[in-house]
Structure of DDE transposase family protein:
Amino acid sequence: MTQELDNKQKKEWAKLLFLTTDLTQAEIAVKIGVSRITIVRWAKEWEGLKLNFLQTREARIKSTLMQLNELDESIAAREQGARYPTVKEADIRRKLTADLEALEQEASVRDIVNVSRGILDYVRAIDLEKAKILSDYFDSYIQERLKWVK
C-alpha cells in the first residue's frame, strides 16, 4: 500500500491542516497519527503563520501583476526613443515573470487541501457517510503529494 510518512512530512501535513481547516489540535493529532502534545508543540511555531496565510496565491499573483504593470507604465512614460527597460528593470521583469510562472504552475498541496475542504463541505451536507469515505481518499492523496514535496 502506501509508505508511512516521516516526521517531517507529518509535521508539514499537520501544519496545512492547522492553517487551512477548522479541525481542533486533537483532531489533527488523530488524523496525522501523532500525540496531541506533539501538535500543541508544533502549533506554537505556526501561530504567526495564520496571519501570513491570509495572503492567498491569487493575492500574490495579483500583486506581482500589479508590480509588472507599474514597471511597464514607468517605462512607457519615458520620452520617445527611451521607452525600454534598463538592465536593472529587465532583471526585475524577468524575476517577476518567473515568480508568476511559479505561482501559476501545478497546484500546491495547500491548494489541494483547500479544494478538498470545499468538496467535503458540499458532500457532508448531502451524505455524511460518503463524506467520511471521501475524506479518507483525500487524506491518502495529500499524504502521497507530501512525499513529492522537496
